[in-house]
Amino acid sequence: MIGIIDYGSGNVQAIATIYKNLNIDYEVISNKSDLKKADKLILPGVGAFDATMQQLIDSGLRDELNDLVIRKKVPILGICVGLQVMGFGSDEGDLPGLGWIPGTVKKFNINKIEFKPKLPHMGWNTIKDIKNHSLFKGIDNEFGFYFVHSYYFECESEDNILTTSNYSIDFTSAINSGHIIGTQFHPEKSHGNGVLLFKNFAQL
Asked: Cβ contacts of residue 153 below 8 Å, gap of 6+?
């Protein structure tokens, strides 16, 4: 069963609708006891880093998540800020992240961006598949995914980079460390590519 974590951030219902249409077993989860029922987890996220971390703390789910992901190795997919909180911290705020994947969240340098409006990076963008990971099986990389963000995840190790995209610079658009995966883009807003990515995640 796919557990979609509802802690007050992210497009939870959009993800739930996709799994419903795929006839894949899922549940929207907002308490610790239900977390344990899931075979895989999805951590959505929309908004600022500190606000997202605080919501995760206030929900009472952070410690249980740490136990399930780090000790029990339950696969998890983080989306947008749900990816960013997997790192150590962010230039956007002061709270520490979950620390699951070594890296820090950085802001795009607006002085290097020629497009207007400069931030956020919003709209469709292509991806470059670095690892040929099963999550991206059948994905049209040139069609790409939908992004909305002003910050990006800077991995300490290239081994954790799944895909890159370009917005004035090449930036990491998907990360992983074993069973832990994150996407900076929003698959729930990315039409056929997004639906296929969610299906692939369910089959990992």
From this structure: 83, 84, 86, 87, 103, 104, 105, 106, 171, 172, 175, 182, 184
Which class is domain 2-203? alpha beta
Out of 80, 92, 121, 149, the active site residue is 80
* pTM of the predicted protein model: 0.96
- 119: three-class secondary structure by DSSP: coil
H helix or E strand, kind and range, residue 125: strand 121-125
- Separation CA 122–CA 120 (nearest Å): 6
CB 161 within 8 A of CB 103: no
- Respond yes or no: is residue 188 known to be catalytic: yes
154, 156, 188, 191: the catalytic one is: 188
What is the 8-class DSSP label of residue 159? Answer: G
- Categorize the per-residue pLDDT at 32 as very low, low, confident or very high, splitting at 50, 70 and 90: confident
186 among known catalytic residues: yes
| Domain boundaries defined on the chain | 2-203
